[in-house]
Write a structure and sequence with these properties.
The structure is a homotrimer. By secondary structure, the first copy, chain A, is mainly beta. Chain A has two domains: 85 residues, MurE/MurF, N-terminal domain (Udp-n-acetylmuramoylalanyl-d-glutamate--2,6- Diaminopimelate Ligase, Chain: A, domain 1), CATH 3.40.1390.10; 199 residues, 3 Solenoid (UDP N-Acetylglucosamine Acyltransferase, domain 1), CATH 2.160.10.10. Chain A is built from five helices and 36 strands. An eleven-stranded mixed sheet of chain A has the order 7-10-13-16-21-24-27-30-33-35-36. Chain A has a nine-stranded parallel sheet with strand order 8-11-14-17-22-25-28-31-34, with no helix packed on it. The first copy, chain A, is globular. The mean pLDDT of chain A is 96. At the A-B interface, strand 10 of A face loops of B.
């Protein structure tokens, strides 16, 4: 499931062409842009925060966009592209390799489902499927649903109505209620006066078995990495999950909760309604976050927090009594 | 309006079959699962919180799932099913009686509207209606709208586009703007490792006359009870109303407000944008709740509150000046 | 772009007919209802808050609905209609001039796009266009999209799927992701027992070049004035923009942010996720508002604020450490 790739480049690209200003042997070529962790020796990657030092040390990538300071952590045989603004360079290179990943334009392969290809799937009215879509047996797709090319869905899953899904892998026994928008490009760009540089999003959304996602949720696909909803995790209505967020197993996320990009949640986490989790945080296992909280720091396993900013629950109650 | 029932079982079920582990005379039968208040002598009910003691004393139900401690409040002739985890047992029994109420799968009766049946209703493009849908004269239905079986709608009501409605009764002169999802299953389940037990939702949504609901709102149907939006109450965009919430008459609910399950609001309540109301609360008449507040306690009639957690408005202003 | 008008009355109306209880020479006629600023000598306007004193002094309107106290600021030759409840009178008069502006009913001109008229536009499936819709070359419209009469859209713009747009002018190179509802009537009414008086909304939404609006956002059209999203401003998922809000250029608005009506933002403003901005505020240029903040006061240029209510960021951090 995690190895499915939506944006796949299959033609070798000379590194010298990607970086015309750098002196690089033009015989060196790469295929794809991947994370530090997932890169093979034919891939290019990036490294822009010391959070990812452990991944950097072990990366197999042929080449890495990074800055002077971080570059020392990379393996010797990894070609370093040293720049000042790593994400700006990443956006430019991604756009060169995957020119269609920065704007979600129309999937031209969309067609009404060929029922011979899906004899055991029930379809509502006005369903459109892209090419290579796979849907497991006994799954049900509602009305006015768009499932774009290469989306994979397991068996016994139920998709509601008025839904748009792309760049997503869905497991078995998943329920997605009406009005959800899943796998669209996330909120990523390099601010530039009068014309921002849009960050191409080449990741996907992974929705594991037994997940339930209620009405009008939005789950953006990952930028380079993936967005993940773990097994048996339930999301209530109007939850917003930004790019690269990883939610563990058996979590309960109440209505209108929002996650900024790249945060990671453990298993058995429960979050009350309207809480918000800032970007790039690590929330441990068995954490409980009270409704309306604003989480701005990492949270250790088994903690209970509440408040804005979120603090240990007992302290919050004490402060509230003042 | 409140007597309409969407999940109706019409074949007597032996209590002994529902509870094979209990010793129950198999000649005793029930028809439906109802609330303590609405049960007749042919119904089964449940009682899991002392909040509902007054209803328990007066219930006419033939049988009640409850725990040891609460069972003393039930009438003598009501058969008590004593269990440790009341909601877990309720979920299992509901699933037995109403096997299709725990996942919102495709309504197979959906068809384009037969205009002969609705001579005085205007329909947009791509409308789908289930069986037994009733729509009053001079009502207007937009485009890409799904109205599932047995939904009732009064006259002079205007439904926008890209909307999904099920298990709902709508009054006269109601306006529902585009993107709303109404009457879908709420966020209810018994957490279980790797495979939660979904709580079947057999209630409905009641939307009274002159209500206005703005774009992209989500209003879940009740679990056993109903979700209610009272007469002349207006909801702004992106409001989330969870199962069993009851909102009174003449209320004003601003954008992005969220209600957790089973709270009750009086009449003439106004709530500012992004406020949240926790579950199982009682908000009185003429209450004003400031924008962004988090309400975690009952609120008396005529109060003005603000803050997170919400406190009397004057105190909030005083605290803010510190 | 700003001069486009959706609700246009072209037949002179005698002022005496609009205000039968006032003694007005019946030969005086007006055409349209406009803001103080935009009124010409054939228009009627309203003035209900001292915030707009500067506009009142210079208005060219033939007639103005106002109260006793404010009326002194209006030009001598402007006919003053003095009332106690200005907005109540405005709602009644708007309803007389524009009887269809208070409920978003079905656009009867919607049709599948005539591809001969749009040779350079790509359309998905089930698109409906009203009359006089203009779409620039190389623009792309997704599936299940409704674009109502008189909407204008520039070139190279990409509209996702399951979207409803009306009363809106969209620039070039704009991206709108799936599930957005744009240009619908805002949340405005005069509260009245059992039957509120709906405020007709005759304004529009202006979306300037290079704007990006992510999934499931709602942007209401202006009431008398317009709602504006400035050039190169980006909105993340599930943002709610109420009527008459004006957002400047190059702003970044994160997920689930909400704006109450009639606030104005400068350029280069960035707002973190789930923050809320109250109504009728003025937020300066280069302001940064932290995630989850509740802004209830005007904010000066170059400020950084956070908190609920929002205060200077340094003070918020200091308070949080208590």
């Amino acid at each position: 499931m995690e190895n499915v790739v939506f944006f796949q480049n299959s033609k070798a690209i000379a590194l010298g062409k990607l970086f015309p200003d750098k002196k690089i042997n033009n015989k060196l070529t790469i295929l794809n842009f991947r994370t530090l962790k997932k890169s093979s020796s034919r891939d290019i990657t990036f490294f822009d925060s010391s959070h990812y030092e452990n991944d950097a040390i072990k990366t197999k990538a042929a080449c890495c966009i990074t800055n002077e300071k971080l570059s020392i952590h990379l393996p010797k045989n990894c070609i370093k592209i040293i720049v000042k603004n790593v994400l700006f360079e990443v956006a430019k290179i991604l756009k060169k390799i995957y020119p269609a990943a920065d704007i979600d334009t129309l999937d031209i392969f969309l067609k009404k489902p060929n029922k011979l290809k899906f004899p055991k799937v029930k379809f509502g009215n006005n369903v459109l499927l892209g090419k290579n879509v796979k849907i497991g047996k006994n799954s049900v797709i509602g009305n006015n649903v768009i499932i774009e090319s290469n989306v994979l869905m397991g068996k016994n899953s139920v998709i509601g109505s008025n839904i748009h899904i792309k760049n997503t892998v869905i497991g078995d026994n998943v329920v997605i209620q009406s009005g959800c928008m899943i796998g669209l490009k996330g909120f990523g760009f390099i601010p530039m006066k009068d014309k921002n540089l849009k960050m191409p999003h080449i990741g996907k959304v992974l929705i594991d078995d037994h997940v339930e996602i209620a009405s009008n949720c939005t789950i953006d696909r990952g930028s380079v990495d993936d967005t993940v909803i773990g097994k048996n995790t339930y999301l209530d209505n109007q939850v917003h999950v930004a790019h690269n967020v990883k939610i563990g197993k058996n979590c309960m996320i109440a209505g209108q909760v929002g996650f900024a990009g790249s945060s990671t949640l453990g298993d058995n986490v429960s979050i009350g309604g309207q809480a918000g989790v800032s970007g790039h945080l690590k929330i441990g296992n068995n954490v409980k976050i009270g409704g309306g909280s604003g989480v701005v720091k990492n949270i250790e396993d088994n903690s209970i927090v509440m408040g804005y900013p979120a603090i240990p629950f007992k302290k919050f109650i004490k402060n509230s009594k003042k």
